[in-house]
Amino acid sequence: xxGLAARAGRYAQAGARWSRLVTSGRPDPGVRVFYGHDHVPAxxxxxxxxxxxxxxxxxxxxxxxxxFSLLYLGSTWLPRDLRALLWxxxxxxxxxxxxxxxxxxxxxxxxxxxAFNRPLRTVxxxxxxxVYQSEFCKRAADELVAEPAGTxxxxxxxxxxxxxxxxxxxxxDGPALLLGGDQSQAYRLxxxxxxxxxxxPSHPDAQLLITGRLVTQPEPNVERLGLRRHVHFLGRYxxxxxxxxxxxxxxxxxxxxxxxxxxxxxxxMAAGLPVIYPRSGGVPELVGExxxxxxxxxxxxxxxxxxxxxxxxxxxxxxxxxxxxxSAAARSRAVERFALEPWLDRHAExxxxxxxx
Length: 357
Description:
Order of helices and strands: HEHEHEHHEHEEHEHEHEHEHEHHH
Number of helices: 14
Number of strands: 11
Strand content: 5-15%
Oligomer: single chain
Structural class: alpha/beta
Distance between the termini: 42 Å
Largest sheet: 6 strands, parallel
Shape: elongated
Helix content: 40-55%
């Protein structure tokens, strides 16, 4: 389907939904959740940004666009008709819950910071309850957007630890390093490539697996650093494909600074991959002291300043020297702290608490 046809289909769906909503009354009792979009990616479909958690949640609580009793929105996946939806739920006395991820800040969003944060401020002020994905998410939102109007809690993202499992045998070649997710900021890819170059003198067979969308052309840096035989670009992947991808690697390089609560990190940990990361954002809450190493760097909201490649490579070398222990700790931490079922159960409690009776 072409982009134009897909867009027309989405508008048609939204129009049909609103034709029913404007004539609806107070919702009947019971838990029927709407995630703000007519389509939630089905299991197996590719996800991006904030859609992964709603994909998981919809397996237990399917999406109800036209007869919902509860609106559950994600800050990184807000609908285009947000203001109309907020008007509707106020008018029909339908509870709104928000899953709050990151916010705009000058080092990332620049002059667009306020424009990015404006809808977040609106929905934080309208939500009856806010689920922050990390302590860092709460602090950043309080400082740069607004404090919540309703109740709140911190609930880290979750992973299906039965789906994301370690390889029976680690890859024989390598070490293989994974730069996962989307490379949506130029420095993320550059730091990954430069770290590989720093590692090659001591590990000449090292390989770097790079996934997702690229915002810069990698070839100049690949050629400059002499990495052509060591770098593999794999493109986007679905949640079904992710475990097999993780099992091709030994370590996750997560190069994004101030990352609020990346599901990528806990998925990699569940697959037994320790994590090398900039020590900022919510990632230290996920990795802890034994499942990887956080590399210090200038930490703040005014500028994004990632660690140097030599510091990243030094941390990586320490992990590779004790890889079995780090891998076991990563898997154990994911199972004990971030398993999917308790996360789903907590949402069930929240939905039962706020849905009309």
